[in-house]
Specification:
This protein has a five-stranded parallel β-sheet. The chain has a single domain, classed as Rossmann fold (3-Layer(aba) Sandwich), CATH 3.40.50.2300. It has seven helices and five strands, in the order H-E-H-E-H-E-H-H-E-H-E-H. The chain starts with 9 loop residues before the first helix and ends in a 14-residue tail after the last helix. The protein is α/β, with parallel strands linked by helices.
């Protein structure tokens, strides 16, 4: 069976498809109890534009883990989350444990854990949690370039993410 091209030929097929893929701004959630840290990161990314002049980031902020979880649960769009480890109330690790238990949150968002605490790598349970969620650590203080690269890698992970991210059940108990 031979298919005939639609009236107007191939040009009419391509007419409805934009020639340039539009990129939506990255939604960035900054979670840190230190207001100065949140403000510094926000100021760097708030006015960032891509080469076409479009805004690159939409910034949201949370001052603690409880507020962060509320934003994560309410957000229908994927977020790149810069999450501080040590905060009053829920720590960064406790937020990540809640995320690990919630399949929707786990599939929707990408996390970067920031910490000024040395030797976090020696905490085996935290390392297992980070590995289970494919989370990278960003030690504080960090260079602006390192932060930009971490956010760019997280954005790429969101773009390449399969809608069905599987986490082995043995890792869910952390």
């Amino acid at each position: 069976m031979q298919m005939e091209p639609p009236e107007g030929g191939a040009a009419s097929l391509a007419a409805g498809v934009p020639s340039v893929v539009e990129k939506t701004p990255v939604s960035l959630l900054i979670v840190d109890d230190d207001e100065a840290t949140r403000e510094s990161i926000r100021l760097v990314f708030d006015d960032a534009f891509d080469i076409t002049g479009e805004e690159r980031y939409v910034i949201q902020e949370a001052g603690d883990g409880d507020e962060a979880l509320a934003i994560l649960r309410a957000s229908a769009e994927p977020l790149v989350v810069l999450l501080d480890e040590l905060m009053p109330g829920l720590t960064g690790e406790e937020v990540l444990r809640a995320v690990l238990r919630d399949r929707c949150l786990r599939r929707r968002h990408v996390f970067i854990l920031m910490s000024a605490v040395p030797h976090l790598s020696r905490r085996l349970r935290l390392q297992r949690l980070l590995r289970a969620l494919s989370i990278k650590m960003l030690p504080k203080p960090f260079a602006l370039e390192d932060l930009e690269q971490a956010i760019d890698r997280a954005r790429q992970r969101l773009e390449n993410r399969s809608p069905f991210t599987w986490v082995p059940s043995r890792w869910r108990r952390f």
